[in-house]
């Protein structure tokens, strides 16, 4: 949806109802500056405000999202007509007897059985650690965590292309080694065959070669806000598992006006010293994200906190301070410079 088009549509209908920006803001329990931002095409309304905003403008949510009134109503009328036709067809089929219904159910059952049989076997290529290797009755096996349910281990028989003796679960410092694996397994028995197992690297702590750098930028009216991404861990929902990591983004200021001395501040920012927890006051913390940055995402000349989510459908969250209130928006995109800053190390 185009922000400018939506903003103009909101402004047009607000004026048609004789409402000021303040009148509309009071109905929605927000500030008139937020309404002004919408109408100038600088931001989208929060998704939780769509229903009350549409009601305040005397229209349906569908009309608000389409930025026009009549077309959506015609579509609704068409849908009701189609539903009426569908109900008549169902009633006609019922009158023709149960035999055709039973035949259809039998066909569906047969299709379901074929699908279940096919779905029972999965071919996987992923980067993962190996939890156990063992030899039973002369047969070599590797054990890895199931991608979708990490409470279970998959028992994988080594194929001819796997050098079982060369598989080392940890390195000399005790860190888990990771491997690029190819295998096929059965969902019901959790057993399968691994056809390729190539060394990939090792995990230091919770992420490969992680470093927690601290940045410092003006934000939310503060002259200095520090932030870092921390607590990296493999995303259990990604494919291939082990190549994508989630983290927490933390934004903080100095507690009780206790500034660091210049030398320590420089060491904190360049990553050579941790920021003392005793003087941190967290003002925003976002968990389970891919990356974060402080940047001017909406072009208004002031910084916002920009979060990159793990969801492709809604890849960004932008936090902004308006009249002392922290507002959250979900734009579909951000400027190219910001996207580059939000790129992750494993994306090359």
Assembly state: single chain
Task: Please tell me how large the radius of gyration is.
Answer: 28 Å
Most strands sheet = 6 strands, mixed
Shape: flat
Which secondary-structure class do the elements indicate?
alpha+beta
Gap between N and C termini, in Å?
Answer: 30 Å
- The run of helices and strands is HHHHHHHEEEEEEEEEHEEEEEH
Strand order of the largest sheet: 1-5-6-4-3-2
Question: What is the strand tally?
Answer: 14
**Number of alpha- plus pi-helical segments:** 9
How much is the average pLDDT? 80
Set down the secondary structure blueprint:
Blueprint: H1 3-16, H2 21-28, H3 32-39, H4 50-56, H5 61-66, H6 70-95, H7 99-119, E1 121-129, E2 132-136, E3 139-145, E4 153-158, E5 177-186, E6 191-202, E7 215-219, E8 222-234, E9 245-254, H8 262-269, E10 280-289, E11 291-295, E12 304-308, E13 316-322, E14 325-329, H9 336-341
Parallel strand pairs: 4-6
Antiparallel strand pairs: 1-5, 2-3, 3-4, 5-6, 7-8, 8-9, 9-10, 11-12, 12-13, 13-14
Helix pairs in contact: 2-3
């Amino acid at each position: 949806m185009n922000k400018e088009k939506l903003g103009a549509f909101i402004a047009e209908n607000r004026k048609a109802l004789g409402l000021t920006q303040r009148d509309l803001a009071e109905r929605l329990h927000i500030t008139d500056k937020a309404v002004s931002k919408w109408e100038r095409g600088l931001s989208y309304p929060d998704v939780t405000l769509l229903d009350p905003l549409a009601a305040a403008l005397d229209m349906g949510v569908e009309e608000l999202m389409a930025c026009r009134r009549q077309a959506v109503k015609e579509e609704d009328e068409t849908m009701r007509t189609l539903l009426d036709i569908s109900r008549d067809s169902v009633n006609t089929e019922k009158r023709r007897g149960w035999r055709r219904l039973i035949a259809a159910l039998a066909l569906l059952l047969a299709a379901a059985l074929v699908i279940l049989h096919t779905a029972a076997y999965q071919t996987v290529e992923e980067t993962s650690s190996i939890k156990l290797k063992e030899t039973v009755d002369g047969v070599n096996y590797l054990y890895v965590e199931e991608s979708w349910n990490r409470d279970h281990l998959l028992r994988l028989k080594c194929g001819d292309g796997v050098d079982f003796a060369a598989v080392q679960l940890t390195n000399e410092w005790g860190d888990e080694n990771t491997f690029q694996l190819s295998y096929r397994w059965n969902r019901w028995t959790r057993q399968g065959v691994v056809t390729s197992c190539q060394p990939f690297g090792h995990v230091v702590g919770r992420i490969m070669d992680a470093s927690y750098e601290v940045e410092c930028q003006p934000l939310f009216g503060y002259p200095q806000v520090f932030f870092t991404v921390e607590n990296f861990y493999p995303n259990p929902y990604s494919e291939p598992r082990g190549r994508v990591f989630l983290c927490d983004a933390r934004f903080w200021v100095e507690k009780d006006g206790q500034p660091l001395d210049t030398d320590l501040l420089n060491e904190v920012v360049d990553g050579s010293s941790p920021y003392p927890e005793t003087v941190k006051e967290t003002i925003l913390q976002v968990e389970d994200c891919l990356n974060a940055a402080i940047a001017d995402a909406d072009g208004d000349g002031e910084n916002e906190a920009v979060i990159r989510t793990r969801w492709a459908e809604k890849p960004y969250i932008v936090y902004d301070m308006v009249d002392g209130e922290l507002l959250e928006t979900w734009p579909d995109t951000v400027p190219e410079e910001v996207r580059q800053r939000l790129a992750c190390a494993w994306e090359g």
